[in-house]
Specification:
It is a single chain. The radius of gyration is 24 Å and the shape is elongated. Helix 7 packs antiparallel against helix 9. It starts with 12 loop residues before the first strand and ends with a helix. The chain is an alpha/beta fold. Strand 12 and strand 13 form a beta hairpin. The protein is built from 14 helices and 20 strands. It binds ligand BES and zinc ion (2 copies). One zinc ion (ZN) binds next to strand 10.
Length: 524
């Protein structure tokens, strides 16, 4: 069940059990298959990732005939399979064995869950992908803890739907997904349970973020975002403060304040804190900063009507950070984390900020506003500076910042910018675990011209149609200063227009999983 009032508050019950999948009674049992052909030029050679003879026997005729090739997302559904208690056997293709990644497993679990929906089925079991089913030459070993984590995440993410506001929503929710691994040694079982439990936390947290992003602007005002953040913090044991305009003015956040001044909705400055039970020695305070524009009309530099409705998701950076904080609170890494979300609307009005206006940011930097639609960098400027004044010594921000990032990288990779190679690499190192795609783009002094103002310290647009995403990053870099900082531009990847076999269209929750891993990297 999903409730618009509280966000995504229930999801598939995911479990990991150690027993033979053939002996498990379920409406549908999913098993994974890979293609062991070594090059794209060779004919497909599908093989099941299971050591169960019953499962292998049931699928054998389709694998041998070449009707099923184990391509990514390909499925084969068999009714009343012999020698097992499942009513149906679903074979899910994961693609080539020699390039198999944890993310392929995540997507495979998602495909299995989404196969239930058009059939009105509510429960399934998934046979754990067993790498020992294949000879070493065909496939590298699959880390069992990582695979367990990916299965839990994939199943949870696949259940998420966006139609929460239909009067009679087509309830296709999946109630239970049980992952089955044949009994093995206690050490491996403990590792898998740990990975699985972590995956459940991360998957639920990502759905929490996606539900926020999916909310319309009239429901999810800055005030409501503050309420949801506070409720989440309360339930997970995080400290939370939600401040209004008075505090923003008292802190002299002139950049944030000028964006909200044209809106009838009050802004919200949301601050969350996670304090670890036992921090590692010299643990740095990590600062997570999110762009929380609950609706971006462009302001006086107003956007065109086409696709303006999409600008409800201009708070996806904030949602990624709130989702990450939820996961951090439950995973309990040994490093303290601070989160600052700057939330407001960007509206045109008699009182709105105008092109040509000059404002003073909390840092004292003066900013010439040349385009009021470049508002994200303004709120983040004060958010980054505020996080530093609260003690953060490493910074990361996430924002739907520029249309230009889509021009540069398409809908595939999100953009990463940094003032510190080591910090950028630390973030990029998380990607094999998170399965997310980020590509680093330049943010060096070569681009300083982009933010030079004739009358103030800096201006808020690049002033040309070139390197727009870098221009925005250069602006933010001024406020990160010498503090190691990573900026994630998720404008083109935070929302998907089309369904995918493993997940619904709509909010993706991009960034959250990698940010959680980035935090955890400091915990070792
Ligand atoms: N919120 C937009 C960026 C955006 C675009 C997010 C598409 C999601 C999808 C941002 O505030 C914006 O309007 N940026 C301008 C900057 C320009 C005025 C320098 C843009 O990208 O056009
Ligand atoms: Zn804008
Ligand atoms: Zn915006």
């Amino acid at each position: 069940m999903r409730s618009p009032a509280t966000g995504y508050d229930s999801c598939v019950n995911v479990k990991l059990q150690f027993q033979d999948p053939a002996g498990f009674a379920t409406p549908l049992l999913a098993v994974f298959a890979v293609d062991i052909a070594t090059s794209a030029a060779d004919a497909a050679s599908p093989a099941l990732l299971t050591t169960s003879d019953a499962l292998a026997g049931a699928a054998a005729p389709w694998l041998v005939s070449g009707e099923f090739k184990a391509a990514p997302g390909e499925t084969l559904l068999l009714h009343a399979p012999a020698n097992m208690r499942a009513e149906r056997l679903l074979v899910v293709g994961l693609g080539r064995a020699n390039t198999l990644s944890i993310h392929d497993v995540r997507k495979g679990a998602g495909v299995a869950v989404r196969c239930l929906k058009p059939r009105g089925l509510r429960e399934l079991a998934i046979a754990f992908p067993e790498d020992r089913a294949l000879a070493d030459e065909h496939m590298d070993s699959l880390p069992c803890e990582g695979a367990a984590r990916a299965l839990a995440e994939g199943a949870l993410l696949a259940d998420f739907e966006i139609d929460t506001y239909r009067s009679e929503p087509s309830d296709k929710s999946v109630h239970a997904a049980t992952v089955l691994h044949r009994e093995t040694d206690k050490h491996s079982e403990a590792e898998m349970q740990k990975g699985f439990a972590e995956g459940a936390i991360v998957g639920e947290s990502q759905n929490f973020a996606r539900a926020l992003i999916n909310e319309p602007g009239n429901v999810l005002t800055p005030t409501e975002l503050g309420r949801r953040a506070a409720a989440m913090a309360e339930s997970c044991g995080l400290a939370c403060e939600v401040h209004g305009l008075d505090k923003i003015l008292e802190l002299k956040m002139g950049a944030f304040a000028c964006v909200t001044q044209g809106s009838a909705q009050p802004p919200a400055l949301i601050v969350l804190r996670y304090t670890p039970p036992a921090p590692v020695a010299e643990a740095p305070l990590l600062g997570l900063v999110g762009k929380g524009i609950t609706f971006d009309t462009g302001g006086i530099s107003i956007k065109g009507a086409e696709n303006m409705d999409k600008m409800k998701y201009d708070m996806a950076g904030a949602a990624a950070m709130l989702g990450a904080m939820r996961a951090v609170a439950l995973l309990k890494p040994a490093v303290p984390v601070l989160c600052v979300v700057c939330s407001c609307e960007n509206m045109p009005d008699g009182r709105a900020v105008k092109p040509g206006d000059v404002v003073t940011a909390m840092s004292g930097t003066t900013i010439e506003i040349l385009n009021t639609d470049a508002e994200g960098r303004l709120v983040l400027a004060d958010g980054l500076h505020y996080a530093k004044t609260l003690g953060a010594v490493r910074l990361i921000d996430a924002a739907t910042l520029t249309g230009a990032i889509g021009t540069a990288l398409g809908l595939v990779n999100a953009g990463l910018f940094s003032n510190d190679d080591e910090e950028a690499q630390r973030f990029l190192d998380t990607l094999p675990v998170s399965g997310e795609k980020f590509w680093r783009l330049p943010c060096t002094d070569d681009y300083k011209e982009q933010i030079k103002s004739q009358i103030a310290d800096i201006r808020n647009t690049g002033g040309s149609r070139y390197a727009g995403a870098t221009a925005a990053a250069m602006f933010l870099r001024e406020f990160a200063g010498k503090t190691p900082w990573v900026h994630l531009d998720i404008a083109a990847t935070a929302w998907k227009d089309d369904n995918e076999p493993w997940q619904s269209r709509g909010p993706t929750g991009i960034g959250m999983r990698s940010i959680v891993e980035w935090v955890r990297s400091y915990s070792q």
